[in-house]
């Protein structure tokens, strides 16, 4: 199920959810310019996935090591992507998202 943060209007905003080894779609607010994603466990991350699909089946993905954050500066205009997909490399990690203006 998607994590829909499009209505967030106070920054920074801290969001947490339990992930799985399938892709979870994170929908970002339109006025967000930077996001940080981290977890208690190792994660896969991409912008090229289908929600609910097994992350192991995807080839275009990066990773975030356990207990660390990866920061993204989002593009502007036509280069801005408002969706990020995350999945645990194993188990059900606690995933943390920090949304910044």
Q: Could you give the count of β-strands? A: 9
Q: pLDDT average, as an integer?
A: 94
Low-pLDDT stretches: none
Largest sheet data = 5 strands, mixed
Overall tally of structural domains: 1
Strand content: 35-45%
SS-derived structural category: mainly beta
**What is the helix content?**
under 10%
Instruction: Give the N-terminus to C-terminus distance in angstroms.
Output: 25 Å
CATH class: Mainly Beta
Shape: globular
Computed Rg: 13 Å
How many helix segments?
0
Strand order of the largest sheet: 1-3-8-5-6
Could you name the CATH topology? Jelly Rolls
Structure commentary:
By secondary structure, the protein is mainly beta. The chain has a single domain, classed as Jelly Rolls, CATH 2.60.120. It has strands at 3-4, 13-18, 24-27, 34-39, 43-46, 62-64, 69-73, 83-88, 94-100. The strands form two sheets. A five-stranded mixed beta sheet has the order 1-3-8-5-6, with no helix packed on it. A four-stranded antiparallel beta sheet has the order 2-9-4-7, with no helix packed on it. The model has no long low-confidence stretch (mean pLDDT 94).
Outline the secondary-structure elements:
Layout: E1 3-4, E2 13-18, E3 24-27, E4 34-39, E5 43-46, E6 62-64, E7 69-73, E8 83-88, E9 94-100
Parallel strand pairs: 1-3
Antiparallel strand pairs: 2-9, 3-8, 4-7, 4-9, 5-6, 5-8
Quick description:
The chain is an all-beta fold and 101 residues long. The protein contains no helices and nine strands.
């Amino acid at each position: 199920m998607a994590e829909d943060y499009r209505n967030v209007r106070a920054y920074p905003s801290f969001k947490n959810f339990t992930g799985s080894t399938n892709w979870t779609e994170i929908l970002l607010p339109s006025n967000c310019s930077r996001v940080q994603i981290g977890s208690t466990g190792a994660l896969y991350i991409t912008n090229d996935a289908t929600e609910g699909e097994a992350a192991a089946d995807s080839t275009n993905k990066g990773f975030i090591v356990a207990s660390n954050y990866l920061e993204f500066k989002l593009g502007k205009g036509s280069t801005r992507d408002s969706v990020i997909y995350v999945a645990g490399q194993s188990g059900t990690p606690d995933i943390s998202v920090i949304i910044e203006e």
